[in-house]
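Question:
Now give any protein.
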Amino acid sequence: MISFSSMQSNNIQTQSSSSPFFNHHHHYFHHLTKSTRPSPRFHHRLLFSPRAQNGDLTTSINNNNYVSVSNLDDNLTRVHKFSKSSSLSNIEETTSSHPLLSSKKLKIAIIGFGNFGQFIAKSFIKQGHIVLAHSRTDYSLISQSLNVNFFKDPNDLCEQHPDIILFCTSINSLERVIRSLPIQKLKRNTLFIDVLSVKEFPKNIFLQLLPQEFDILCTHPMFGPTSGKDNWKGLPFMYDKVRIGQEESRIKRVNTFINIFEREGCRMVEMSCCEHDKYAAGSQFITHTIGRMLQKLGTETTPINTKGYEKLLNLMENTTSDSFDLYCGLFMYNNNSMEMLEKLDAALESLKMELFGKVLEKLEKKVEKGNRLALPTPFTKNNIEILQVERKELEALS
């Protein structure tokens, strides 16, 4: 078997060790292949193609991905050409951790490649980033059409050493998915990101399950495939840098990801996960609740729709197009949602009390005056009695 050390040794013997030019390149090549690598597997990936990693060493050499040559500069040139030719090469493992070699291109692995994962991947691809994906459902054909590399096995995906693991799963399945992911195969400074509609829950799961070496960014794009189908201009993107390492390359990486949304025209909102959930319970959860209430009412279009009614129909359509699991997750995993639901219920009762009280007041005055035109019919008398009972019950509750 041809070893890397023997190749390097043979090349060194053919050069003049007194040459400053040689010494410079030898020092750089030694630094690139040894001191910056995070694991012994890296030099194996550097020298041979993905095919050769499965044991086909002869094929790799015959295909000239790497051959032993007498000139060290040629050696470096071949390694450099190979790093550019392989779309799934792990050369980024070194460049992403070396400030001098880092670039703006990110390798983003999307976990959960459903509607939202596919939707958000398009902008990543458009901006020149490499996108990998894994999901329970086989989205190989869709991924191919989007220029995304799909992996059925999460082990294979993690071995590609992505810069970012982006969770586009349901709220309910996040913990299970993280526990099933072979994170030991990732780079130790990998950035973990979620796009869930609640924020305290994924933050706590990340902090509980991920080693200290991993970076954490919690985000919430406040839009989806329907509301963001044309563009993302003016749409809010919330983010919280929960845990980011102090190295320049790691700070640059998280800022590069955030900049994807800024370049698309999003309104950038940096706030804590706790603040987000308080606001979201009073906005997103209430919005979804009203939309689903309208569906339960059997709300339909009419020949005399007003502009306001059209907006209610659109609200119902947008909210009910999301899964009920999402709505359930907004309630279960946001500690503020129950309080908002109770406030909504109390608000409806308060409105009913105010309405019944006003109607009773008007009807009773008309009865007292004996206005012939306003004398209550038997139906109206019955209504008054019902309203009086309802008002007493509401007053007792309040």
Summary: The beta strands are 107-111, 130-134, 149-150, 164-167, 191-194, 215-221, 236-243, 267-270. Residues 1-72, 75-102 have pLDDT under 50 and may be disordered. Residues 366 and 374 are 6 Å apart (CA to CA). The radius of gyration is 31 Å.
